[in-house]
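Troubleshooting entry. The earlier prediction with iron/sulfur cluster gave an output that would not parse, so I re-checked the input for stray whitespace and re-submitted. Clean input:
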Amino acid sequence: MHSNIENNTKAVKDLAAALGFDIVGITSALDFDDFEVIALERLESGLMDGLPWYNAERVKRGSKPSELLPGARSIISLAMSYMTEPPSVSGNAFMGKVGRYAWGPDYHKVMWDRMSVLIDSISRELQVSIRAKTYCDTGPMLDRAVAKRAGVGWYGKNTNILSSSHGSWIFLGQIITDLVLQPDSESKKTCGQCTTCIDMCPTGAIIAPYVLDNSKCISFLTIECRGEIPIQMRPLIGDWVFGCDICQDVCPVNRKAKPTREPAFQVGEHGFTSLELIPLLSITDLEFKQRFANSPIRRAKRSGLVRNVCVALGNIGDISAIPALIHTLKDKDPMVRSHCAWAIGQIGGSLSYKALEVALQEESDDDVVAEITLALDQTNQIIKTTI
Ligand code: SF4
Ligand code: SF4
């Protein structure tokens, strides 16, 4: 005979599956002591630098679910796949790569709305009034620690949660509740001897298995980094303009990942699977807000995205981008002008040299002046080596 807890657990899982969640696991609301120790160590060693909201207080709160919801008994760990294939792009425009998670609409709203419906459905189906709080990539809740303990997946050496069915192409959501449910067992799977993601990361950001140095990660540099991208990192970014998928694309577990069945995450021809670079150099604040209103890309803000576009064009190195870049040397944001000067310096040529000389005369920002001077040296070297 099934206990009430088992019946309720089955009902919760069935309701979650019916609402489109691909994986659902349950864990207790006990403290995450191990995680707290590791996370605090990483914070202290500077590996999370540049994420101001990720601080010790947040880690400590997140490690104690009963502080987030007094009386909490269970956490429902949910995963929804966002795996789709990109539509083919025709033409020969300069294109920048976008991380797969940002190809469709902002996932937070999709996940929050769905979790809210799930909570209502649980109350209705079980005929109980439950207290619950939802999280999706926000607040102190430890999404990956919860997913691991709930058996949704295991930690990959690239620090993503890997699931057997959908790989790491999953959005994670959590519902913390006072409902008593039957916890699942942790996954026994591991990456084994594989080190592909570590070997293939272009920046060496995975400094050891399961340890990511944020300051080297292209995802951090192109999304969360609000200021200058360190000059030594720029050539390593290639043509990524928002995020980076390399350590997921190369992961053998992801080869078998099932595609998403969620209509909201299907990428049509208007999705942002890649971005045409030259038009973005002159995008206005208003155009940026309108175009990316419902996309995760808006997180980079206009200046951050145009900065990334400059870096990508510098790395692509095609001289036909120079006229548009020269125009961007007058951008209102000094950070954009700096990266634009760098890009022009990378591409080189006599037109570049002349444009940088003019910009140097007109520039009043000390940091930009320094970048233009460096770019002029770089251009000079390219001219000398090609004579
Ligand atoms: Fe490296 Fe890109 Fe993965 Fe960051 S997202 S760890 S840069 S491969
Ligand atoms: Fe693990 Fe290999 Fe995937 Fe890296 S590439 S996360 S080591 S299975």
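This one parsed fine. The chain has 17 helices and eleven strands.
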